[in-house]
Amino acid sequence: MNWLQLDKLSHTFLSIFQIDEDLKEENAKQLLNQETDLDKPGNAQFYCLHCARYFINDQALNEHFRTKVHKRRLKALELEPYTIEESERAAGKGSYVAPKKRKIETQTPIDATEQKSQDLGSLPLQYIRAMQWPCFRRYGSALYITGDEAKGIFSVLTPYIDVEDRFKEMPALKQSIELRGMQIDVDRLKHLWEVLKTVEADKHKIEARRVDVTNRIKELRRGTDVATEEMEKLKVQGKLLREDLKATVKAVWELQKTVMTKVLSLPNNLHSDTPSEGTKLVSEFRHESVIKQTESHVGVGKKLDVLDYVNPMCYYLKGDAALFELCVLDYFAEKLGSHAFIKFCNSDFGRSVVVEGCGLNHEDPSVTYILQDTGDILHTKDVNRLHLVGGASLPSFCSFHAKQIIPVTALPLRLVAVGRQYTPNSQNLEEANFPGLFGASQAASVELFISTANNLSNMMDEFERTVVALTDMYKELGFPFRVVYLPAQSLRLYESLRASFQMYSSYLQSYIEIGHVSVCDDYISKRLLIRYEVENRQRFTRIVSGTAVSVPRLLGCVLELHHEAKSFRSIPFPQAVRRQLF
Amino acid sequence: MKILNITFQSLCCAKHVYQYKSLKSLYSVLRNGEVPEPELDIDYLCNDKYKSEIEENIKRRKGIGNIDRVHELHNKLRNGALSEENSVDVIKEFKEELKLIPNKTCPLVAVYGDNPKVVKAIGNKRKFDFQPKEFTEITKMLHLVRTDNLSNLSGHKSYYLMGDLAEMEQALVWFTIKKLLERKFQLISVPDILPAHIIENCGMTTKGDRTQVYMLDDKLYKGDHCLSGTAEMSLAGYLMNRELRVTELPLRLAAVSRCYRAETSRMAEERGIYRVHQFTKVEMFLVTECNSSAAMLEELRELQEQMFASLGLHVQTIDMPPHELGAPAYRKYDIEAWMPGRQMFGEVSSCSDCTDYQSRRLNIKYRQRETGSLLHAHTLNGTACAVPRMLIALLETHQHADGTVAIPEPLQPYMKDKVTVNRQDFPEMKFVKSKYADPKCKND
């Protein structure tokens, strides 16, 4: 495949509604003369207004103008978009006016010869950019599937979307978005939501009137006196109503696509303990000031002959370090077991619907590993792809809980899984740039997952208890560490509070997260329908999740802490960890 | 002039892209370790004297490989009557064809024909005074596994082990590791995602329709990456391009890893978690001097038999006939355990002697003690414990009439000295088929 073809697949679809906005002259002018943006194909210099797509060069853009996709889009835009006024007219207010047709023309093709001569040095970058993410299979949400898409796609579940409730807490929502540094215009979204609601209401009205008309026709038929004139009138009315309904339903789907995907990308509200910026120290154990060390854990590990590091995707732990991995996993799982956690061994795969349900971007190849489709994916249009997430990960637990009703007697249900965690790129850039175990894509981990009843104090109780329990476990390990609450901008979408267990890397001169406990509230439960039943009423659970330990990170910090050790065995490990083997 | 200028620009672009691409591929190869050129035994494979022998071998193994073509190409190359471009193509094809020729077969096995031979049986079929239940029934009664309604959430045939069964998995791993450490095995923790060429050099195909290998989406990730189907591949990749000291041999490595296999089966006797896409496995990988691999294979087999027998299983060892060996193995034992619920022997483990098949392809060598010459080492591999099959055999063998299961004594220390697996005391969840939340379902 050449990069021209690849690029065609990588565009985002904008709805007809938005494009109509774009077509207004002042907007159009702006869009056609965008500033150079290195993240967009062709540095955002080659844009098709009507299809809302970027192209990598003039040739590609001009070629696009000749395609069927573009021509079809022009045709679709010829009709003026559906408006509230029109819907009102359709519902019986005022008289019906057929939507006007207008002339839509392709923007003037860019004359290749008049293009300002490009600096040759900067050119390859375009192409490199275009190649780097050659093909996003963008079919939109795997979680929310509208009626028109449902024909081709099997939808697993419909998330419970509490838009009204979210908008009721507008200040909290706005604060969460702002502190997380996200770019979502909530007011505009709210406006769109209102529009959607009116259009939906219209749909119901039209439906009701259609039923009414059919009933009257039936009545007339039953009657002996043949009121032909009346009958004809009703039939015409029915026909018009049917057309209206069709248009309205289409409008609803179109709007839903825009609004719902945006609503689904809204973050969780923040817990009051989450600091606005900077970390908030919760506790600290054996803090020692350490001087900068010149040797990283990769070097130390090599010196001790326990680590063979090739790249973030490939490292080998040898001998005692491999044993250390198993022992640490066992230590944490055992200890959590004594705190009434039930052991699990989870599936390593998760589908897109679950990944998105967790508030992770299921289309981003740097968030989860996306697998090549195998036989059990029904067709290539299927949005519900297979992801490698690892058994000790949040999505894996969520797959287990999705669409389940937990008996209330089982709550709080505390689960722990030992296994792997796979993450293509470390979230933190500094860590990813450093070639070492901190940015490794495969990590043996212990993951925990607690479902609690719909009661804030219950959930916070569980959270506190777990943080205390983990703190005790780390104390027993005996290495210096600290527990902090992370600032809003470091939180994932699903988190409202995150307690981070960190150790100091004396090589990087910064703290590295070894484990964490997060408050997810009912954010995930609502999206994946995780419920419990009490007095015959279903309610959504509130979830506390976390990673008790990520072994490669712990190992990296321990190696840097004991860089002067003669052998791996001489590093002081507590008896509880040694017990199993060494 | 303008047109010329544009052509020049686009040419420059193309050149840059090309350079970038080649740089990138070079970079990734270097970081993954250079893939060695296979050093195959051309003197043997292309000698007319052995041609019929090799042909016979391929036929007996029902394998692929075309020795006639190899000889034909070899002769063409030897005569040297080819033009330069032509010879490049011929050399390429020659190498490809040469790679396809399977390993030699142990002469003892060659006489078996198509029938496997049972070489050893340990223990007896346990007599039950009740109808022994099958694994799925037992786990359902005791609430130990969930396999239903997961296809659309976590993938086809996925499963969750719960409570005591998850604990038993850990116990099995620890039990096996301890046994292996006693036998001077070195433990290695290995990556589960590997570059495709390592898997191919181990003798597995990654391309084609009937592939058993999961791959990362090649449009999203640079280079071909596969999920490892067994730690044997990762360990072989670890040893790739190594020159070992003779004092290090025999080198015994073991790894605990997750294995991913895309294969599926609709066979009734493979229902439940018998054949799954993902499981935990302890794998052994050994490197020996070139003449001691046969003796090592026997040692490996005895170790496996002893481990399984100590868990109270009734096992039989089978010497596999030539057509069951696959391309790399010279000789292979399968160990099958009796599964009373299914009333059949199921394969729980295997070990094979690959002689120099893998080491020639992955460039694993050692320096001989006496002469100091560099020789290809021999490699062996074996399963120490493949968890799901072991769980099936253990639960079905040690079940009581009331549905509970006795935990074999060697595993008890790793399970807080528990003696039996009883019904798990956390309540069962209810799966709701409807994809909508109940309209009344609302949090305050």
UniProtKB/TrEMBL annotation, chain A:
- Family the entry assigns: Belongs to the class-II aminoacyl-tRNA synthetase family. Type-1 seryl-tRNA synthetase subfamily. Belongs to the ZNF593/BUD20 C2H2-type zinc-finger protein family.
Q: Name one Pfam family in it.
A: zf-C2H2_jaz
Give the PROSITE patterns listed for this entry: AA_TRNA_LIGASE_II, ZINC_FINGER_C2H2_1, ZINC_FINGER_C2H2_2
One GO location term (cellular component) = nucleus
Q: Looking at the keywords, is rRNA-binding present?
A: no
Q: Which organism is it from?
A: Coptotermes formosanus
> Keywords on this record?
Aminoacyl-tRNA synthetase, ATP-binding, Cytoplasm, Ligase, Metal-binding, Nucleotide-binding, Nucleus, Ribosome biogenesis, Zinc, Zinc-finger
What is a GO molecular function of this protein? zinc ion binding
How does it associate, per the subunit comment? Associates with pre-60S ribosomal particles; released from the pre-60S particle very early in the cytoplasm.
Q: What does this protein do?
A: Involved in pre-60S ribosomal particles maturation by promoting the nuclear export of the 60S ribosome.
| Superkingdom classification of source | Eukaryota
The record's subcellular location field reads: Cytoplasm; Nucleus
Show the InterPro entries listed in the entry: aa-tRNA-synt_IIb, aa-tRNA-synth_II, aa-tRNA-synth_II/BPL/LPL, Matrin/U1-like-C_Znf_C2H2, Ser-tRNA-ligase_type_1, SerRS_1_N_sf, tRNA-bd_arm, Znf_C2H2_jaz
Q: What is this protein called?
A: Zinc finger protein 593 homolog
In what residue span(s) does the C2H2-type domain sit?
Answer: 46-75
- What EC number(s) are associated with this protein in UniProt? 6.1.1.11
TrEMBL record, chain B:
Looking up NCBIfam families in the UniProt record yields: serS (TIGR00414)
Enzyme Commission identifier(s): 6.1.1.11
**Hey, where's the site called Important for serine binding on this chain?**
T383
Quick one: which residues bind L-serine? T230, R261, E283, N381
Looking at the record, the residues that make up the Aminoacyl-transfer RNA synthetases class-II family profile domain are 178-408
**Organism's domain of life?**
Eukaryota
Binding residues for ATP: R261, A262, E263, V276, H277, Q278, F279, E347, V348, S349, S350
Family assignment from sequence similarity? Belongs to the class-II aminoacyl-tRNA synthetase family. Type-1 seryl-tRNA synthetase subfamily.
What is the protein name stated in its UniProt record? Answer: serine--tRNA ligase
Arranged from A to Z, the UniProt key words for this protein are: Aminoacyl-tRNA synthetase, ATP-binding, Ligase, Nucleotide-binding
Q: Which SUPFAM superfamilies match?
A: Class II aaRS and biotin synthetases
UniProt-listed GO biological process terms: seryl-tRNA aminoacylation
